[in-house]
């Protein structure tokens, strides 16, 4: 599963997309755990998870084909 | 034209202002946010904004919906620029129009506050001797429980 990343997280990883192994369904909580296992360099990074361009909480189920993104604290304006 | 837009181009403020003028609206409030030289004692050379564009435009539109619910009759347009911006350039324009001025003023401030909370746009300050992505970890979507926020 591809995950879009932005701003400081993108800069740290040197890429706009990271990947995690995932089956047909994975909860947001499981997805975060997976990221922490596969990308220890992101320890300490604060982010929310967006699925299909909307913020979602830990119990939300992500399905294959959904567009997933990590949203660090925003600073527009 | 889009009323909720993220753009790499210089913002045409009047275009958004004019878009909300009609015979019902007696007041149009137009806020522009500009690149500031000094922030907390540090001199910014320029700024760079990045956005998750499709989501950012959706969230801007959501702010417009929230305003319509809170202040019926108020119309909203918001445009945020991304890319490299120099001092004094317009980073964001927020226009609210209303039959009477009070609602327009209140809604405009609400829109800017919400923009800083829920719209995936990020600012990087470039100083003479360094740079940093700016983020306020307290600012999250109000529907999200703080305890659910991961990243530790």
From TrEMBL, chain A:
Keywords: Nucleotide-binding. The keyword Acyltransferase does not apply. CDD domains: Ubl_MoaD (cd00754). One of its GO terms (molecular function) is nucleotide binding. Coiled coil: none annotated. InterPro entries: Beta-grasp_dom_sf, MOCS2A, Mopterin_synth/thiamin_S_b, ThiS/MoaD-like. GO terms for cellular component: molybdopterin adenylyltransferase complex. GO terms for biological process: Mo-molybdopterin cofactor biosynthetic process. Belongs to the MoaD family. This is Molybdopterin synthase sulfur carrier subunit.
From TrEMBL, chain B:
It catalyses: 2 [molybdopterin-synthase sulfur-carrier protein]-C-terminal-Gly-aminoethanethioate + cyclic pyranopterin phosphate + H2O = molybdopterin + 2 [molybdopterin-synthase sulfur-carrier protein]-C-terminal Gly-Gly + 2 H(+). Keywords: Molybdenum cofactor biosynthesis, Transferase. Its EC number is 2.8.1.12. The keyword Transferase applies. CDD domains: MoaE. SUPFAM superfamilies: Molybdopterin synthase subunit MoaE. InterPro entries: MoaE_sf, Mopterin_biosynth_MoaE. One of its GO terms (biological process) is Mo-molybdopterin cofactor biosynthetic process. The keyword Transferase applies. Pathway: Cofactor biosynthesis; molybdopterin biosynthesis. Gene3D superfamilies: Molybdopterin biosynthesis MoaE subunit (3.90.1170.40). GO terms for molecular function: molybdopterin synthase activity. Belongs to the MoaE family. Heterotetramer of 2 MoaD subunits and 2 MoaE subunits. Also stable as homodimer. The enzyme changes between these two forms during catalysis. PANTHER family: MOLYBDOPTERIN SYNTHASE RELATED (PTHR23404). This is Molybdopterin synthase catalytic subunit. It comes from Phocicoccus pinnipedialis. The gene is moaE.
């Amino acid at each position: 599963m591809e995950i879009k990343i932005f701003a400081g997280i993108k800069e740290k990883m040197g890429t706009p997309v990271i990947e995690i192994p995932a089956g047909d369904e994975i909860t947001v909580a499981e997805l975060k755990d997976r990221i922490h296992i596969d990308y220890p360099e992101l320890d300490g990074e604060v982010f929310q998870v967006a699925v299909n361009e909307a913020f979602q909480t830990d119990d939300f189920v992500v399905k294959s084909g959904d567009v997933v993104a990590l949203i660090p604290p925003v600073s527009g304006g | 034209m889009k009323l909720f837009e993220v753009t790499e181009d210089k913002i045409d403020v009047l275009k958004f202002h004019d878009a909300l003028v009609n015979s019902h609206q007696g007041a149009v409030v137009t806020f522009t946010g500009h690149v500031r030289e000094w922030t907390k004692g540090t001199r910014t050379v320029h700024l760079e904004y990045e956005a998750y564009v499709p989501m950012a435009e959706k969230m801007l539109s959501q702010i417009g919906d929230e305003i319509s619910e809170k202040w019926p009759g108020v119309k909203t347009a918001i445009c945020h620029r991304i890319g490299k911006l120099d001092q004094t350039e317009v980073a964001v324009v927020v226009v609210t129009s209303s039959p009477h001025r009070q609602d327009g003023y209140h809604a405009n401030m609400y829109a800017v506050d919400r923009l800083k909370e829920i719209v995936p746009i990020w600012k990087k300050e470039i100083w003479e001797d360094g740079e940093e992505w700016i983020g306020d970890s307290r600012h999250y979507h109000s529907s999200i429980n703080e305890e659910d926020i991961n990243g530790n």
